[in-house]
Amino acid sequence: MNERRKRRRRSSNGLVDVLNALLTLLVIGLVVVGGGFLFVASQYYGDGPLPEERVFRVETGNALSTTASRLEEQGFISNALIFSQFGSRVAENTTVKAGDFTIPAHASMSEILNELTTGTPIRYAVTIPEGWTSWQVVQRVNADDRLTGTIDTLPPEGSILPGSYDYIPGDTRQSVIDRMQAAMTTALNEVWEGREADLPLESPAQLLILASIVERETGVPEERPQVAAVFVNRLREGMRLQSDPTIIYGITKGQSQLERGLRRSEIQEETPYNTYQIDGLPPTPIANPGIDALEAVAHPDDHNYLYFVAKGASPRDGHVFAETYAEHQENVARYREIERQSAEQAAQEAEAARQALEAEEAQQATDAQGTGQ
């Protein structure tokens, strides 16, 4: 009997020992897991290793794991695995955006992941002014070293809608040009659909050509509908457009500035772009018109003017308009006088500047002699 009791006590003690051992292992496991969790959490939420503010670029198509590796390689974070694995379990959003992001000094992994998923990338854009030629557009796009690739074919004149186009560094130059062209296609179709019904234009292409001429004829935005109406009136009357910018385009093909006045021989030469010598419109646009120029041609002012000439020496002075050739000649005479006076004033200012420079040089020479130099 005593032996049985002893065996039962030993058996009970053995079971207790096993349970104690298991409980000890469980506690140790919990401590290890908890400690590991605390370590990982401290790494994820604690200050990061970045010593100063820097820009990090997320390439188009990069997943969270790829982004994490690149962040670690570039010194933004200390551990890519914690960033991707722990971050994917605790963050609300783990889809990173493409683009450049400003990361502040000592930003935590949590802060960096939040910036890359919900922040706004640094804005990069190519801006194309109204009235630029396609050649000028390509020069500007090529000059942006954040873009990649080459533009193999010069875009057709007039196929690009001026404006500001955002892009992500690493985008191809051709993709930016494609978006500019798509924007023009959309805008031109919409303007054509909403045009005045009685315009002497047969197609969206003709509207585009005339809008490019209007764009190049005036530097005053408010004048576009007036200028457009003059050309529309001329087309209705069967008169030639007689637009200087069309002749200039025929000479330069939009790839340079003429930097001088037109010669009489150039005005008299019959070329496809010389609207002094040809009837109707030139064969292509002479620039890339903006949306306002397109709308001006689609909805020109209602007036009877057939002529216009510059009001002053500066393009910002605008134009004066006339219904008859006699009125126009008077306006031209006034403009010629303004031109003459402006040339005289420019010559006087140049002479005054020359004399001032000579006086300054003479004074410097006198000062040098006085100091024995």
UniProtKB/TrEMBL annotation:
TM region(s), chain numbering: 21-45
Biased composition (Low complexity): 343-373
Lineage: superkingdom: Bacteria
GO molecular function annotation: lytic endotransglycosylase activity
Keyword annotations from UniProtKB, A to Z: Cell inner membrane, Cell membrane, Cell wall biogenesis/degradation, Lyase, Membrane, Transmembrane, Transmembrane helix
Gene Ontology biological process: cell wall organization; peptidoglycan biosynthetic process
InterPro entries reported for this sequence: MLTG-like (IPR003770)
EC identifiers of the protein: 4.2.2.29
Start and end residues of each stretch annotated as Disordered: 339-373
Catalytic activity: a peptidoglycan chain = a peptidoglycan chain with N-acetyl-1,6-anhydromuramyl-[peptide] at the reducing end + a peptidoglycan chain with N-acetylglucosamine at the non-reducing end
Family per similarity comment: Belongs to the transglycosylase MltG family.
NCBIfam families according to UniProt: endolytic transglycosylase MltG
PANTHER family: ENDOLYTIC MUREIN TRANSGLYCOSYLASE
Name of the protein in its database record: Endolytic murein transglycosylase
Organism, scientific name: Devosia soli
Gene that encodes it: mltG
